[in-house]
Amino acid sequence: MNEELLPVQIADYLQQQTGHVVQVGPLKRFAVGFSWKTYLVPIAGGLPEADGATELILRLGPSDGLFAPYSAMPEFLSMRSLESSGIPVPKAYWASDDSETFGAPFLFSQKVNGAAVVPWVPVNTPPLDEAYRKSLGAEFIDALAALHAVDWSDRPIAQMAQGINIQNAALTNVLYWEKQIERWAMRPYPAAQWAIRWLKNHCPVAPRVAIIHGDYRTGNFLEENGHITAILDWELVHLGDPHEDIGWVSMPMYMGGSSHFCRLTEPEWFYQRYSEKVGFQVSMASVKYYRAFSLLKLAATHMAAARCFEEGRFNDLRMPAMGSQIATCLRQLEKTIESPL
Amino acid sequence: MNNSFPRLIDGMCATLRTEVLSRLDDEFARGQVFGVINLLNTFKSRADWSTDFLSQQLSVQCHALEQVRALIGNVAHAPEVAKLRTPQIVSPAELLSLRDSANLEISKLLDWLAKAKESLPEATALAIESELRQSMRREIEIELKNSPRPLFAEMSSGQESPN
To answer: Complex ipTM, two decimals?
Structure first.
C-alpha cells in the first residue's frame, strides 16, 4: 500500500463506481484506531452517489495490521444491516476484501460530524459535566439496547450466523479467543490459561442471539452537543449473547477513574434502563462472566499488538505500549472471576 | 556513556515534549511521539545499561590486573594488586527463558490439577492451587509495579493531557 498514490487510486476507484470523474483532495489520516487505518477523503463538488457527500471516510485494513488479515465484510454487513434501524450508524457505500484496488481490504462510509469522548484519561481529570454525561449516557444505553433488539435474521449480517445459538454463543467465543491467544502470545501466560478454563466451565445460556458490536465503549462513537451522532468501529461485530457488549462496557479500564461505565453511566442505571429497553432482564452472573471474557479478549489484543510489533509487521509505536498492558488485564481478570456477583 | 540511564530517558522525554511536539501539527505523528515517550518511560523503570557490555569491560580489567599481579609478584616494593573477580552474571535472555519455562510448568500443573482435583485430598489440592495462583499473582504485581502510566489518551488523540 503506497500512501502517496492513494488519492489517485481513490479517484480511479470512485470513478469506476460512479461512472464519472471524481476529484479527490488531500487525505487526512486520523490517529484513532489501533488496527484499521482511517482517512478523511475530501471530494471536490460532492458525490451524488454518496448522498452528495463532500467528504467520505475510507478505512483500510493493512495486511500487516493488528489481527490481520482483515475482512471489510463484517463491518460492511453490519452497517448495511442497521440502515434505517434508528441506531446511529454511518452509511456504508462501498467495500471489498479485494486487495488489488488499494493493497488492502477497504470500506467507504459516510463522514458524520462529532467528536469522540476519550475513554483513557489522566488520574486527576474532572468528571464529565453531569447534564452532558446523563444525556450521552442515556443514548449510549438506548443505542446498545436497540442494537440488541434488532431482528437480524433477514438482514445481510445473517451471513455471519454460522450455527450460533443461545446455548453455544459463550463457548464459541471463548474457543475463538483461546485460538487467538495461542496464535499471538509470545510466551506462556498461566493466568490466561487458568481464566480460559474457568470461562469454559461457566458458560451462560444467552437470552437471545443478537448483533454484538464487539468494542462498544467511549472512543468508538461520535457525539455532538451531548447526543450520539454515530457508532463507529464495527470491525469486531459478530452474533452472540447481548451480555457480551455489557461486559465490555463495564471494564474498569474504560471507567476513566470514575465509578461510571465508560465514564457515562452508573452501573445500576445502565442495567435498569437497558433491561427496560431491550426486553429482558440483565443477568448479573452473565455480566460478570462476560466482563471476565472481555478482559481476556483485551489481553489477547495486547498480546497480538506486542507480537506484531516484535515481528516487525509494523512500527506503530502505540502497539508495544498496548502490549505493556497485558498484566493489567490479567490482574483485573482474576479479580473479576474471584469477585462476588 | 557517563550519564545515568534514568536521567537520559527523562531528558529524551522532555525534549520530545518541549522541542518536538510543540512544532508538530500532524495528529497521527503526534500520537506516535507519545508512543515513543510511553516506551521510554517503560525503559526507565525496567532497563539499565547492558550487563553484557559492562561484563566485557570488567573482564578485560580483571584479566589485566591478574597479568600484572603475576608479573610483579616478585618485584620488591611493588604495590599490591587488588584481586577482583568477574561475577557470574546471568544474561537477561537466560532469565526470560527461565521465566517462560517456569510459567509453562505452572500452566501444566494447573491443567493437571483441574483434572486430578477430585482424586486428591481436598487440603492438598487447595494448597497446590493456592501456591500456583499466588505465584501467578505475584508475577503480575511485579510487572505492574514496573510499568509507567500508559499514555493511551495522548496516543489516540495526539494531544498532551492537561496534567
So the answer is: 0.80
